[in-house]
Design goal:
The chain is an alpha/beta fold and 272 residues long. Helix content is 45%, strand content 16%. It has helices at residues 19-29, 40-52, 66-75, 89-98, 116-119, 122-141, 154-163, 178-186, 201-209, 237-248, 252-266, and strands at 3-8, 31-36, 57-61, 103-112, 146-151, 169-172, 190-193, 215-217. Strands 1-2-3-4-5-6-7-8 form an 8-stranded parallel beta sheet. The chain binds zinc ion.
Length: 272
């Protein structure tokens, strides 16, 4: 393994046609991929992908705020359909626990207040926080790191992680302000950087602020591509490594090694 994509959605329908080739490019570049589920049905689908490509794919089970997923689809913002079927939370948590040996992390989980309808409702926000707390308890119980998403909810996410005393957290695609980045660094959490860093000044600032020891690489494929309008894929973590090297004024090979070292510290990648 030379590179690691700690967060991607290669179960997306946008990979249906050519997943074999995408995986082959991972093999050529020696990229290991953590495929993250967002709900019970994607959690099952990613297990099939792991079984098909065990040399490349690891999985993390997630429960993304369902109301935010539904909004994404309604507004056409999510560019692929993720199932939004309602599910029983306790049942979903139990399924994850029963399948814990299959996963290297818990995620994608977190809070998403991106939509006004959610933002203005204390009830909906409260519900998201309740789910997030339960998922954190499970991650602690089964001893897995969290892959955390936050959108327009960055401070709430950090409050809850602190309240729960979470040590092993990967903060993915973090758009929060400087004071919150600093808070994450002080808590010892990791920040995973997507290839969209080529287009977003925010991530350059984040990479400057976060010590190299706390940086990881991700793609969030098919989203967050380095090139506007293109589908993202796991091999693009190479782009992120190159950008981090430029920003930190470090040698690319040195950054690559550091990222692998960091990842191994937070995620046990070798699972049966
Ligand atoms: Zn994601």
């Amino acid at each position: 393994m030379r590179y690691i994509d700690v967060h991607s959605h290669i179960e997306s329908v946008r990979f249906e046609e050519d997943l074999d080739e995408v995986i082959q490019r991972c093999r050529d570049n020696q990229v290991v991929v953590v495929n993250s589920g967002v709900n019970p049905s994607t959690n099952k689908r990613i297990l099939d992908i792991k079984k098909k490509y065990p040399d490349v794919v690891r999985v993390s089970f997630g429960l993304y705020p369902i109301d935010a997923l539904a909004k994404e689809i309604e507004t056409g913002e999510g560019d692929f359909i993720r199932d939004i079927e309602n599910f029983d939370l306790d049942e979903a948590l139990l399924w994850i626990e029963n399948n814990k040996d299959e996963c290297v992390a818990i995620g994608e989980v977190g809070l998403d207040y991106n939509y006004e309808e959610i933002r203005s409702s204390d009830e909906l926000k409260g519900k998201q926080r309740e789910v997030f707390r339960k998922v954190i308890d499970l991650a602690k119980k089964i001893d897995r790191p969290l892959i955390v998403h936050s959108r327009k909810a960055e401070a709430d996410v950090m409050d809850i992680l602190e309240e729960k005393g979470v040590k092993n957290a990967i903060i993915h695609c973090f758009m929060g302000k400087k004071s919150l980045i600093k808070r994450g660094v002080e808590n010892g959490w990791y920040f995973s950087v997507p290839p969209v860093i080529t287009r977003l000044e925010h991530f350059r600032m984040l990479v400057l602020m976060v010590p190299i020891e706390q940086l990881l690489t991700e793609t969030d494929s098919p989203y967050l591509s380095p090139v506007a309008g293109e589908r993202n894929e796991p091999s693009n973590v190479i782009v992120t490594v190159r950008e981090i090297a430029k920003i930190k004024g470090m040698d690319e090979e040195e950054v690559r090694k550091k990222i692998i070292e960091n990842t191994k510290r937070v995620i046990e990648l070798i699972v049966k």
